[in-house]
Amino acid sequence: ENDAGYAFFNKVMENKLQREDLIEKEIRAAITENDTSKIYLEYQPQVDLKSNKITGFEALARMRTKKLGFVSPMEFIDVAEKKQLIVPLGNFILTQASEFIRDLTDKGFKDIKVAVNVSGIQLLRYDFTDTIMKIISDTGIEPSSLELEITESVLLGNYNMINEKLKNLRNHQIEIALDDFGTGYSSFARLIELNIDTLKIDRYFINNISIKDSGDIITGDIISMAHKLGLKVVAEGVEVPEQKNYLMGHHCDRMQGYLFSKPLSKEKALKMLFNQNK
Ligand code: C2E
Ligand code: CA
Ligand code: CA
Ligand code: CA
């Protein structure tokens, strides 16, 4: 019995490690071959709640290979962090996003912002700001069209150092959004001195709107307190009209979610912009 249990456990572990190795190899290959068919970005619109117009996009990483099929970003970002590939992968992603911004500008969409998720490991690198500024100048984009999404977990234990870095990035006109707000340990007291521009309210709170009364109360309070601190507010995971109505009623600035659009290929994202400006 026990032996069989062990054998089974070992087999599961072996499969998991083999899959991680394979994902690692594919990430390496994508980066070294500059292969944007393996790892590429999709762009989910962010919409101004007053005008109902697209103000920007969140870039979301995608991985698809012949051997593995579709691999979720949760899984391959995790492997990249574990295998010390998140810095080169992050640069590959930042470069693709900047090239998309270049494309938008060339086509006349100058005020559209693109938000890129950055991992704490990237942000902790001493040369992070220099690397970003190099990508920005290589692609010839305005730093103000780039927004970085960070999560509160990176602040744990590194608060002062990270906050200095955020200040420096903002001095370079790069905007900072705090992602998944409400799921971690950040308090409003902390937010007062944190160098960010935007708060993204986690999907969890949006989900609770019109399902649980508590979700309603909390979400409205987060929006008004964020505004008092001079922050813009984005609601994530907006799926149904009731949520949108609630958010409009509470003066939330922007929304993002399946109600308006799923993440799109860059071609489709561009098409959507052209259509709204017709
Ligand atoms: P996230 O940054 O919180 O991204 C939002 C996730 O919610 C995305 O999942 C998006 O597709 C999904 N989503 C958008 N609208 C809706 C909606 O209305 N309903 C529901 N249920 N979901 C919605 P995705 O693309 O699978 O990404 C998952 C996570 O992977 C991201 O969460 C982020 O933490 C990470 N990730 C994705 N791309 C990158 C990247 O380029 N770099 C890093 N470091 N992490 C990334
Ligand atoms: Ca995000
Ligand atoms: Ca989020
Ligand atoms: Ca999330």
From TrEMBL:
Boundaries of every EAL domain copy: 20-277
Name of protein: EAL domain-containing protein
Q: Which organism is it from?
A: Defluviitalea raffinosedens
User: Which region of the full protein is contained in this chain?
Assistant: 479 to 756 of 756
